[in-house]
Design brief:
The chain contains seven helices and ten strands. The chain is an alpha/beta fold and 230 residues long. InterPro entries: P-loop_NTPase (IPR027417).
């Protein structure tokens, strides 16, 4: 099981949240999903495409096997299958549902075997269903789009989403940014790494004339704290 803690990831509020991620940033999705399932009880539904539902990645980031007990995954390989699965959600989802996940929502509708006009009709229908579920049942719906794939489908998804969260890989881990979203602490095995905005939020900003005496500080590891008997 993983060592991630829910506090390392932004909370998903009711509504449609669009996660924008780099091509290599797949595990940011798994971290967000498992963190949210740790916070919430109830069933969760994942409509997959392009093999984003990687089992070992979900278990790597989950706090325990119990975290994923209510998660149901269905995988589509064509735009028609994807639309059918999304259309089936209203018969499954309720106000007690913890989360709906639809990664790479536009991907299959871009496939050349779907006529352009029909692809857009199916896509618009799918996004309308997801938006209606999020609004009528007040549940979080998480969708994703890749960087570098901006087109009519991504533009429509941005318009549909209630909020957008960006993620990027850093030396310390995945950083999330967005409206009212900022990664302030990076959790690692046995210790955690803070950022300057974390301390500003915790302590406020000291007057400039009082900074001359401030020296470097370190955050003790859990091992060091344990050794001191805290």
């Amino acid at each position: 099981m993983g060592t991630d803690t829910p506090s390392a990831c932004p909370r998903l509020e009711p509504g449609v949240t669009l996660l924008r991620r780099p091509r290599e940033g797949r595990h940011a999705l798994h971290r967000l999903v498992t963190a949210e399932l740790t916070r919430r009880s109830g069933s969760a539904y994942w409509v997959d495409s392009r093999n984003d539902a990687v089992t070992h990645a979900l278990y790597e980031h989950a706090q325990s096997r119990r975290t994923l007990r209510g998660l149901r995954i269905a995988r589509a390989f064509t735009a028609y299958q994807h639309h059918e699965l999304v259309s089936s959600l209203p018969g499954r989802v309720s106000s007690r549902t913890a989360l709906v996940v639809v990664p790479q929502l536009p991907a299959l509708y871009r496939d050349p075997d779907v006529p352009d006009g029909e692809a857009r009709t199916l896509f618009d229908s799918a996004t309308t269903i997801l938006d209606a579920l999020a609004e009528s049942l007040s549940i979080p719906v998480l969708v994703t789009a890749r960087e570098g794939t901006d087109d009519q489908f991504t533009d429509a998804l941005v318009e549909t989403a209630d909020r957008t969260v960006e993620c990027r890989d850093t030396r310390e881990g995945v950083a999330f940014t967005g409206e009212d979203v900022q990664t302030l602490v990076y959790h690692h095995r046995g210790y955690w790494q803070t950022t300057i905005p974390y301390w500003v939020e915790l302590l406020g900003v000291a007057p400039e004339e009082d900074l001359s005496h401030v020296g470097p500080t370190t955050v003790p590891t859990l091992d060091a704290v344990a050794a001191e008997g805290w």
